[in-house]
Structures are given as C-alpha cells and as structure tokens.
Amino acid sequence: MTHAPRYRVARWVACAVVGVCAVVGVCVPASVADRLPTPSGTVTQAPEPPLLPGHVITIRVRVEQTTVDTPQKTREWSIRLHLSLYGMWSKGEKITAQECQELADTFWSGSADNYFTVVEEVGGFCDLNAYYMGEARHAFYSLDDAGHVQVRVPMAYLHQIASSFEDASIDSLELRFTSINNAYCNASPSNASLDKPLPVGHASSCWWRTDDGATIPTTDDPLLEGDVEQAFFDFEKGTVGPFIDMPAPINPFTITPAQADEPASGATDPDVESPSASRGLLITIATGAALLLVAGAAAITWKHRRTN
To answer: Is 267 helix (H, G, I), strand (E, B) or coil?
Structure first.
C-alpha cells in the first residue's frame, strides 16, 4: 500500500512524457520504449484492409542522415527511415505491442545488405525504423559528377501503408540531410531550415505538416536538392551514383497472389474423358460391331450353301 502513490505518480509522469512527445513531434527515449523482435520472416501476401478497425491512426515520417550502432557492433553513417504510428486516444484505440509487432511483420519484413530494422512500442506509439548504410543509401539520394545531390522519400509506399488502415493519415513529414549547401526544398513545405552551419559543412531540413496547411507529398520525386560538400565523402563515405530501388523492406502491395496450379498442356483430368478418348472408344465399338456383322453374314451364307 505504501508504494501505490509512488506508482501512480510514475505512471502519470510517463503518460505526460508521451503526451508532450505527441504534441511537439519528438520520439520517446529508447530507454522508455519496449524493443520488439524484428520481422523474422518475409511477407508473402498483401494485407487485407482495413487494418486495425476501430483505430484512428496518425503517421509521422522522418528521413535523416545519422550515425548508428549496427548489429555487427560497428558504428556507421546511415540514412534512417522512421515511421511513428500512434492511436488518437480521444478518437480511437491505442496501438498495443502485439499490434505493433503485426504491423512490423506486414510492412517492415525482408532483408538486404547494409540494412537492418528496429521496432519499438511505447504508450500507444509504434515506431518502425529502417537503417540504410553504404550503397543502400542510394535508395534515398542520387549524386552526379558535378556534385548535385537530390534526396527523396518513398512516399508512394508510405501512402499505401496509410490507406490500408480503416482510418489513418500522414500528418507530418520531415527530411534532414547533412553536408549539403545551396539547398532548396521542393513540393512547398510548411517550414525549412537551409544551409545551417555545422562544425564541418552545413545541414538542411524540410518539413511538411498538415496542421500548418501543408500537403504531404505523394510521389517519390526529389524533395531536397543542393550541392554536396567534401565532408560527405570524407566523413560520411558517400558515393556518386543514381537512385536505386529500395532494397528493403518488401512492399507487400507488389506481391502477386498465388495462382492455383493449372494442368500442363495436353494433360487431362483422370476422372473426365477427353473428346479424343471418346472418339477412340466409339471407333473401337463400331469396328467390333462391323466385324460381328461380317462374321454373322458369313456364317449364314455358309449354312445356306450346305442346305442347298
């Protein structure tokens, strides 16, 4: 009994932290979140909407360059694709840990070189993180020989994810990139921070928030462009090259439903006679009947000759 007030205070503080994070759009510290298993299998079919009926889901998206500790115990520069899905407590149900795991298994499955995922759940939030390193980062940026860099976000897939729920929308998109100068944003963001000085190089960000009247982009067209700086090669190990297809996760909406096996050409159902088989049987019967008639006629003629 003496511990009950302390427990209630701790729980109230945790709820307050989550609420503040929802308002200002920041992530809950990893120490508070419950780390969930990353998808162990590969999705084999498209989800059947609507997902999570009774929920009102808001999705916030962030793509950024960052360093990360990899499963191989190394520290690498990466591009992080971050989705934070949460239930609107006043309008629907919170996302449970089990539901978060199911969402990860559906939308975050698959594996690739220079790629890994982290899935976390806390207080109704379901955070899906994908980290791309090395050449896999070209899923998000292209860089030509002249040093012009373009940065994009897989918005087409993210909108497919949102449309699979009974009631979901993307209300925030944030794109951050370092070692870029003379930068500009496309697609009319609601806010931008361009060419911000860093100890080495510059950084730029573009934000789209529906609360500010912005329209969330729907295509994979480049959203941020500029001139890459030397630090991108020296520290971040960036490379020249075009965009590539996103190596993972697997987009379940592109999976073709499995078709029932069809009989091979010329194969027949053993329980159903083919037309050719029927014709062969009729020919056999007709031939046999003809032979019987001939034999019968010959016997009658022979008998008739003997009686005469």
So the answer is: coil
